[in-house]
Structure formats: C-alpha cells, structure tokens
Design brief:
alpha+beta, Peroxisomal Thiolase, Chain A, domain 1, nine-stranded mixed sheet, two-stranded antiparallel ribbon, globular
C-alpha cells in the first residue's frame, strides 16, 4: 500500500497556558512541565470538524498525481465528528461529486487514524478498492471542558488527509510496510480511561496516570509489531512519531528504547493533543524532511483502550 499524497490543516487560533489560570487554577509552568504544551490550536467560530477535514483534503489534492474522482473509497476516521450520520466521508463525496465509491466512518479513540488505515488495507486486499482517501479531523475544543483540571488544558484541533493506492502511482510515493492495531478494552481502566459523552462532561480523562502508564507500554509494543516482521529493531527506525498526547510520554518512550530525542518528531508544544490526527499531522508536516530509504514508525495509544502503529518507507 502506498501513500500518494498528504495534506493537513491547522487552525490559526492558539490558546496559551496563561488562559487556564483563572479557569481551573493551573499555572503556565505547571502545565508546561507536566505536558510539554505551551499553546494549543483552536478552530475559529466559522470552522469545525468538516471544514478542517475539507481543508486538509484540498492541501493533499494540490500534490496528487491523479484526479480525486479516481478514488473508490473514502474513510473518515475520528472520535469528534460534527455529525455521526452525515459523516465527513459523505460530505467529501458531495463536495467533489465522486460517484461509484464507498464512504465509511471509523472510530477507535486516538487510534482511529491507524484503524482507518487498516480498513483501507483490507479493502485493497479484497480487491474492492484501488485508490482511497483517509481523512481524519479532530475538533476537540468543540467537546472539551476547559474547567476540567485533569484534561481541559490538553486539547487542540486539526485535520490530516492521506491519499493511498494499492499500487505505486509515482516515484514520490511512500510505501506503508506494516500496520498493527490492537483493542485493549479489557485491561485496567479500559473503557473509562478516556471518554467523550457530549451531554454529560464532554471529553474526560478521570485517571491520567493510568493512561500514561499504558500508553508508554503499548506504544512500544505496537512499534515492535511493525518492525519485527522486517527483522528490524525499533531502534533501527529513522524517525519515530508518537501520538501527541503528552510530551512526557514521548520522553518515557525514548528512555525505554535508549534513544536520543532527535529521533522523535513532535508538534505537541504548539498544537496540544490533536487526537487521532496528531501523529499523521506530524508526518505530513515533516514529509519534505524525509529522505529516500528512511523508515518512519508512527505509534498511537487511544482511550478505551487501544493501540496501533504503522511503518512507512520513503
């Protein structure tokens, strides 16, 4: 499976740490030390899940070597949709007037993008699709509660789009070598670790320590799941991109793997936790940095719980 083009969209709005002092009593220094975040992206009043996703798609289309109407599958992956009936996949199909294609919505917390990727891999393997679009848009600030001192200060907004094909379309394509996903709802806090209940308290993380412990463990296991089939060690990867949940998680993963920080790519400092779009956004932001032959491992951990990873060879 090949990545033909990537695009992303980050809202211009930023919410800085000082904003939270009068809201939940957290100082800027406290937030920075415990999360690595000094600002987070926030969609404007006239922006949302759908518009951010469409902007990310437009960015990717500008670099696409074929007509978007050639795709036969769209997967919208997210846990913070504007509408769970008329999904971003269907909105995209309408905007570009694409006929004879499948439109699917996938949600697996912060693993949603990787699970969406695996769904596309399955359609390709069955011969039911040849070209696909995976779009992931997270409008966290639409659902988050800034008054929540446990997680109200974490969330940012953003979107990313990958065009994918079962066969190579150009020499610029990057190859997805392996995808790994795993549901972890049966461990520890499981389904109550992170939740989103719009009519109750929005996005909540009752026990951040439990999330932290398991994220550090299972993101490494997921990386092993995509490197071992290549007879590689995780340490052999050119770069590692972790889900942008907490900078301390990235530091802990680096420590466990005995790797330097320069092996890890991040954007959490400026954007906060952009959910299941986060790792893919980092990849898209750094696409021009990667060299031929580089192997990049992207690894995620989601509330519920779940984990996933995929490896890309440039």
């Amino acid at each position: 499976m090949y990545i033909n083009s990537t695009g992303y969209y980050i809202p211009e709005g930023r919410v800085y740490n000082d904003h939270f002092l009068d809201i939940n009593g957290l100082t800027s220094d406290w937030i920075l030390k415990r999360t690595g975040i000094y600002s987070r992206s926030k969609a404007a009043e006239n922006e949302g899940h759908n518009s951010m996703g469409l902007n990310a798609i437009a960015d990717a289309v500008s670099k696409l070597s074929y007509d978007i109407k050639d795709i036969d599958l769209i997967v919208s992956a997210s846990y913070s949709p504007y509408d769970t009936v008329a999904t971003l996949a269907h909105i995209t199909q309408q905007k570009y007037n694409i006929s004879n294609m499948k439109a699917v919505y996938a949600s697996a917390a912060c693993s949603s993008f990787v699970n969406g990727l695996e769904i596309i891999e399955g359609y390709f393997a069955m011969g039911k699709a040849q070209k696909a679009l995976l779009v992931c848009s997270e409008h966290n600030t639409y659902y988050s509660n800034e008054n929540d001192p446990k997680c109200g200060h974490l969330w940012g907004d953003g979107a990313v789009a990958f065009f994918l094909s079962s066969e190579r379309q150009s020499e610029k394509d990057a190859e997805i070598k392996h995808i790994y996903t795993r549901g972890l709802g049966n461990i520890s806090k499981g389904p109550e670790g992170v939740r989103l209940r719009p009519r109750e308290d929005g996005i909540a993380m009752p026990d951040g320590r439990d999330v932290f412990i398991h994220a550090c463990k299972y993101m490494i296991q997921a990386l092993d799941g995509v490197t071992s089939p290549e007879n590689m060690e995780v340490q052999d990867l050119s770069y590692i991109i972790c889900h942008q949940a907490n900078k301390r998680i990235v530091v802990n993963v680096a420590h466990q793997l005995k790797l330097n920080d320069d092996k890890f790519l991040n954007n959490i400092e400026e954007l906060g936790n952009t959910g299941s779009a986060s790792a893919a956004i980092v990849f898209a932001q750094n696409r021009d940095k990667f060299k031929k032959g580089d192997r990049i491992g992207l690894t995620v951990f989601g509330g519920g719980y779940s984990c996933g990873a995929f490896m890309v060879e440039i």
